[in-house]
Amino acid sequence: MSASRKWMFGVLAMCGLNVSGAVQAYPENSVEAGAKPVPSCGPHQLDGVSAADNIAAHRQFELPTLSYAGNAVPSHWNVPFTLLVDASGRVACQVMDSEFGQPRALNNTRRELLRAMSGWRYRPFGVDGKPSAVVISERVAEQQVPSKHQTLPDVPLDQVTISLSRSGCFGTCPSYEVSIHGNGKVDYEGVGDVDVQGKHSFSIPPADVAALVENARRADLWSMRTSYSALITDSPTYVLILKMGQQRHEIEDYVGRMVGMPVSVGDFEEEVDRVGRTFEWTSLSMAAVEQLQREGFDFDSQQAADTLARAVANERGSDEAAMLRMIDLGTPLKGGNAARPPPGVPVLTESTLLNDALVHHRAALIGPLVARGLLNTHGVLDRNKLDKAFQDAIRGGRLAAVRKIWNTGDGKVQPSLWFVDESDEGASATRKRVPVALLLSRSYRDAHWDGQAIAEWLAAKGCDLKARAADGDTLLHRAVDAGDIGFVRYLLLHGLDASTPGAYGLPALGSAQNEDIALLLLRAGSSWHMDDGGAGFGRYAKEQHWARVLAYLEQHKDEAR
User: Fold this and answer.
1) Residue 360, Cβ neighbours under 10 Å: how many?
2) Cα(161)–Cα(178) distance, rounded to whole angstroms?
């Protein structure tokens, strides 16, 4: 079951406990004289419109960081808030949220924050083109400052080495190590979930290293603890090592922000990545390809094929010119694997390079890969490969790619408008032949998704937009999952039933994360009672601060269930 279909019931809490001895986060006179703490929100004040805009872009101030010294530390670090911001951009009231069920105690430093919050200003948020009160979420970081200052050793630059390693995680966290030496030499080793693996060395200006050392001095890194480790699992570990001559200081960061690690440590880690140019290697770049050429790298090798496959499938990467350069240098287009199989497991012989390019919308690669015969078998267009490429183009969500694959056969061979869908929901698996339009699914944060345009194009080719997937979902479910209100409106106008149950028996409303979409579905007649008489959806709407939806539910509470 997708996370978006699980009702998440948060607990809002405000505590009046005191923790003495906290270091004030604001210099003297930084808070307006006579300023009063922003009050806690009343029971219904947060029943309003949630801001869908980029909150950071509306801030006309810099979020502070709260600091603590010695043993005067909070029981739970960092303070998430739910704020009601009025139409003028002022904070009207606040609730200090709990996290994982753990309430935040209100200490002296946090009380000072509530006073300072009265001076926070946001560029007014708009609803339907007019300034409006909105409910937003903010998170204020907290840190434990070093209790004792330790001076960074002053040594000649050629005796300096600064290293950063990042481990893998339960997911796809890039795992690598980079060491920056005072003479400008950089040693990079890619381990896992990076495009370029193995050991590679290159040079940067020594002046960049000198600036990095001065920033380490300003950040007071030599005074930091050797370990900041949170009691959670499955996250990556970062290790920062400063070698100054014969002296060495190591800082372990295991989700350190959750246990008061100073913000400057994380900022410095990012600076090491920037100065060491690690992103040129973790995500393939032209600079990395050129360095590989200087090293005499064999581009006609399995290693090269794997590197290209990883780059094409890496959602973090975007340098298509570097990918094309590898192709021009003779990198094999078949047999590459984004993830190498374990020893003893045979390597797949059929390339997925074109399919990954389509799914990850690498527009510049599609034509060259098709021209190089990746849709052919023994020199003849392969119908099965064509069908798979067409399906992956739809998954990628770019109409231009869908059209390109459709036209590959020059009208003689065309992809199928059907595919076999499978669902393992319930006690037994279900297989069903359904229209390819049901492959539409918006990837996370894909701002250029052409879902509606592809659906319209497929409908003109004969696709039935009202069909249901093997798990019962309709295209309306896909549009709601995507948060695409225009697509939702289009499907409703073309006769899709808002109440049609999909996976787990939920109508499309069950995955709505946008109030305008939820309201549109309700007004189109969607059932909202789900399987609990509507209580769950009502709680969810309240937690999302959907005032208009709550008003609708109140007006229709006596409807037959």
Assistant:
1) 19
2) 10
The gap between the terminal CA atoms of the chain, to the nearest Å, is 25
Polymer length in residues for the chain: 561
Model pLDDT for residues 509-556, shown as the tens digit of each residue: 999 999 999 999 999 999 998 877 888 999 999 988 898 999 999 999
CATH superfamily of 417-561: Ankyrin repeat-containing domain (1.25.40.20)
| Cα separation, 534 vs 513, whole angstroms | 17
What separation in angstroms does the CA of 399 have from each of 115, 137, 247, 396, 486? Answer: 52, 35, 58, 9, 16
Q: CB–CB of 511/480 below 8 Å?
A: yes
Fold of 157-281: Mago nashi protein (3.30.1560)
Which residues, 6 or more positions from 234, have their beta carbon under 8 angstroms from its beta carbon?
Answer: 169, 170, 171
Map residue 136 onto helix, strand or coil.
strand
- Where exactly does CATH 1.25.40.20 map onto the chain? 417-561
Of the candidates 344, 348, 451, the one whose C-alpha atom is nearest the C-alpha of residue 394 is 451
- Which amino acid does the sequence have at 55? I
**What is the location of CATH 3.30.1560.10 in the chain?**
157-281
Pick from 183, 145, 177, 176: which is nearest to 161 by CA? 183
517: which 2 tokens? 């979409």
Measured CA to CA, the distance from residue 496 to residue 475 in angstroms comes to: 8
Do residues 97 and 83 touch, judged by C-beta distance below 8 A?
A: no
Distance CA 337, CA 353 (A): 9
In which element (H, E) is residue 66 found? strand 65-68
Smallest CA-to-CA distance from 244 within 267, 278, 216 is with 216
Q: Phi/psi class of residue 410: alpha, beta or left (left: φ > 0; alpha: ψ in -120 to 50)? A: left
Per-residue pLDDT tens over the stretch 81-132: 999 999 999 999 999 988 776 778 899 999 999 999 999 999 999 877 899 9
